[in-house]
Amino acid sequence: MMEKTCPYCRGELTQGFIDGGRGSLKWHNENMGILEKHTIFGGEKLSSNSRIKCLRCEKCNKIIIDLDGL
């Protein structure tokens, strides 16, 4: 995983996970059409796992996901 210092504010990062429920993690570009954004068929699948490891900074309220670790 990454360094445990926030690159935005230099606060402490805490390792945890985001739970996506029954779905997978997908990337949606802002320029995608409405069908691509709002259906299960749209988006670029980043992970089949619904539990995504990440680092959270409580100081500046950012979450960092290492896509190489998915």
Automatic annotation (TrEMBL):
InterPro entries: DUF6487 (IPR045504)
Domain DUF6487: 6-68
Top-rank taxon: Bacteria
Name assigned to this protein: DUF6487 domain-containing protein
Species this protein is from: Paraclostridium sordellii (Clostridium sordellii)
